[in-house]
Specification:
The chain is of the alpha+beta class. The chain has a domain at about 50-110: Trypsin Inhibitor V, Chain A. Helices cover about 25% and strands about 20% of the residues. The chain contains 2 helices and 4 strands; from the N terminus they run H-H-E-E-E-E. The protein has helices at about 5-25, 65-70, and strands at about 75-80, 85, 95-100, 105-110. A 4-stranded mixed β-sheet has the order 2-1-3-4, with no helix packed on it. Strand 3 and strand 4 form a beta hairpin. The longest helix is centred in the first third of the chain and has 23 residues, at about 5-25. The chain is elongated and about 85 Å long.
């Protein structure tokens, strides 16, 4: 082979490798169930927010699972769990509750 032909092949090799990687990435993936949504409730379900029927203090001392169940249909987010802070937004939403969890129990509830 000539040197020119070797140089052309050497230049094409990275492109061929990239194309092979792209095709391999498009292979069918196994069907797995979608991951569960994050620890933030949605707004405005048809049933409404059942937690609006009682004071926020009623959530204090409940397990995280109980609180999440009570907050179905409400806007809420997890602010802190066992000292680990979670990201929040600076917008003020008076309907949204932010929960602090310590040892699996609701330690504090804040609005906004």
């Amino acid at each position: 082979m000539t040197a020119k032909r070797m140089t052309t092949r050497a230049r094409l090799l990275p492109w061929i490798a990239a194309a092979a990687a792209l095709v391999a990435g498009c292979a069918t993936q196994p069907n797995e169930p979608a991951p569960m949504p994050g620890p933030q409730g949605g707004r405005g379900t048809p049933a409404g927010c059942a937690a609006d029927k009682f004071a926020d203090d009623a959530l204090l001392g409940k397990s995280e699972a109980e609180a999440v169940g009570l907050l179905q249909g409400c806007a809420w987010r997890l602010g802190e769990r066992d000292g680990q802070q979670f990201p929040g937004t600076m917008d003020y939403n008076p309907q949204r509750r932010t929960l602090g969890i310590t040892a699996g129990k609701v330690a504090w509830v804040r609005r906004g």
